[in-house]
Amino acid sequence: MTRVERRSARGFALPEVLVAMTLLAFGLLAIAPLFGGSVKTNASSNQLGNANALAGEKLEELIGYPAIDPRLAVAAGSNAAAPPGVSTTGPGSIVATNTFCANDLPLWYEPGSGARSFSATSPGAGWMAFPYARTYVIEQWAADLTTRVVSPASYAVKLVTVSVRPTAGPFPGLRSTTQSAYVRFRDASAN
């Protein structure tokens, strides 16, 4: 081999390899926080997707009931029904408590078996707190959708609003969702 051929056949020198590895390490360290952020964003999106599914499920269930069902009842002398502890649903509202509107999701679940419990305290080892709470509000409106109707007067539509709030996970309580629908029930005039 000639001298020129030997020189071009040489590999990298140790200082060159060290400099290249140092630059690569700094580059990887610079983008490392992006991976943690993407994991949190993915978990948050999953949490919001689950909350939306739970809200939509309950909304579909509620609009399938007849207007006289107790789950949709608004007490006489009021124009809205809400879970215990909710005193207002907006200007002009007269709220009555409807216990059906309270959280209907289990408080505990066992991941291994899929079992659920509504017990106030943990049923035992292996049980985890259910990560969502779901409530809803029923309001009665006239046909113009601006005038609230006090029960037992005849109304045109009921506004059903379902709220789901995460109670655990990456952002508990921050990624809550609300879905609403105006529903004209078949037997609205009978109520």
Can you describe this structure?
The protein has 191 residues and is of the alpha+beta class. It has one domain (14-105, 131-190). 30% of the residues lie in helices and 20% in strands. The protein is built from two helices and eight strands. The strands form two sheets. The chain has a five-stranded mixed sheet with strand order 2-1-6-7-8. It has a three-stranded antiparallel sheet with strand order 4-3-5, with no helix packed on it. It starts with a helix and ends in an 8-residue tail after the last strand. The mean pLDDT is 87.
* Overall 3D form: elongated
Order of helices and strands: HHEEEEEEEE
Supply the number of structural domains.
1
- Tell me about the biggest sheet? 5 strands, mixed
Q: What is the structural class?
A: alpha+beta
Please mark out the parts with pLDDT under 50 across 5 or more consecutive residues, or reply none: none
Count of runs of 4 or more consecutive helical residues? 2
Number of strands: 8
Return the average pLDDT rounded to an integer: 87
Beta-strand residue fraction: 15-25%
Distance between the termini: 102 Å
Rg (C-alpha, Å) = 29 Å
Give the strand line-up of the largest sheet: 2-1-6-7-8
Please estimate the helix content: 25-40%
Give a short summary of the structure.
Helices cover 30% and strands 20% of the residues.
